[in-house]
Amino acid sequence: MASHHKILNFANEDKLLGLSDPNYYQPGERAFECWMPVTSTFPRQNFPTNPPSVISIETWRKIQAASFCLSARLISQYTEWDWCSGSFGFWSPAALLVESAAWFDINPAEDEEFPYLLEEHPKWDVILHALANKLVGVLCVRLRVYLRERGIDSWTSFPPTALTIPFASFIKLPLPFSLKSVENFGTCHLQQMATPDFFVDREWVGFTAYIGSSFSDEGQSWARSVDSFESFGCDTIIRNPIQNTPGDDLVLEKNVKFKFVAWVDARLFILESNWFQSQTTAHKHKLTVNSSTGIVEVVRRKYIMSIEVEEISTAAITPFGLVIGCKSGQWIWLWKCEWSSYT
Fold this sequence. Notes:
alpha+beta, 10-stranded antiparallel beta sheet, two-stranded antiparallel sheet, 11 helices, globular
């Protein structure tokens, strides 16, 4: 772990950003041979499925490792007030990176109960982990600025840092520069994290990010684009009882709690959450986890105007927690409650 820390400290954010970009390895090549939805589009668009990529899996593994290092640095940077600009300072590339962040779903076959999880998609698995690793860091930068601007300094779900996440307890790092060290680095957290016990032994918190959320002023058309964040497990933001519930018989809890349901086979297991609340509504998640790849199918249930809505999303288990891609510009990041930095 100490050797990896030295490597991490050697490279600054700009160097790591370059190493996390496919164009660094294959200049002029598009990462995906398809269109990716943008955050400014309203209504929010679904992600593409099975996007072809000319970038090799070996290169994507390097991108995944660099993206982890980049986010490990970014989540540990606290925002400070810049007296010259009159705003909170942050790593400036984060704004563009989170607005252009890519994601995709893996298209299921119709004749299997858990189709895309039962089939191996090695390249797509690696790509999703690379995208998720990078997304955590740039989302965290935006979230910290969002909280500071609103004077929220004691949020019980304040995002974690590389110091508050106990990486050494669940990441079995390969030796630097050893044979297949880059390949093994991308999956070295799954042996401990992609297990039922890891999910059920603690409560989870996090937020839904709406990047580029559009809203209107005084009945005008969609006029402005802003970010908004909806938290799970937050005392200081959730002040009033939520209204979007089916009735008084629904038991809502503040934090996310998972329970083990069943093993589907030697690799797949199912988890279900409790009903937990955000500022606006009630949520319940069902996870089908591939313990070999760390890719998760998430069935998200929530109430909108007292009507239950169900959506299916693709997620990845990262060393920073669970990252779920919902729609263009809409992301969920969940982490263990004790990882929160509280500052």
